[in-house]
Amino acid sequence: MNVIEARTFRERLMGLIPYREWEKDDLLLFRHCRSIHTFFMHFPIDVIMVDRHDRIVRLEKGMKPGKVLVGCMGITCVYEARAGFIGRYSLQAGDLFPGTAKNGL
């Protein structure tokens, strides 16, 4: 599992849009973020929203291109992954997210 952080304005705006392929276990991280869009994406994604304690607050499986997802208060980071990621790792709301630096990555 590789975590790639979107840091610049352009990286954050574009997200996974430039990618026609994305490894099934890689994640794109958006810090200080509570919402994402999938306009112009080439494939569906799973979205994992976590709080400041790295607890999963919200999960969205198989989000199709052309959608907007707005999270609730308390979300501090959003991870995007190729659809199927949530199921492969059996993630559930309330879990400590395994992709964080505190948890071995």
Describe the structure.
There is one protein chain. The chain is mainly β. The chain has one domain: Protein of unknown function DUF192 (Jelly Rolls, Sandwich), CATH 2.60.120.1140. It is built from two helices and seven strands; from the N terminus they run E-H-E-E-E-E-E-E-H. The chain has helices at 9-14, 85-88, and strands at 3-5, 27-31, 35-37, 45-51, 56-63, 68-70, 75-82. The strands form two sheets. Strands 1-2-7-4-5 form a five-stranded mixed beta sheet. Strands 3-6 form a two-stranded antiparallel ribbon. The longest helix has 6 residues, at 9-14.
Compact overview of the structure:
With 105 residues, the protein is mainly beta. Helices cover 10% and strands 35% of the residues.
Number of DSSP-assigned strands: 7
The succession of helices and strands, N to C, reads EHEEEEEEH
Number of helices: 2
CATH topology: Jelly Rolls
Please identify the top-level CATH class. Answer: Mainly Beta
**Strand coverage percent:** 35-45%
Tally of separate domains: 1
Poorly predicted regions are: 101-105
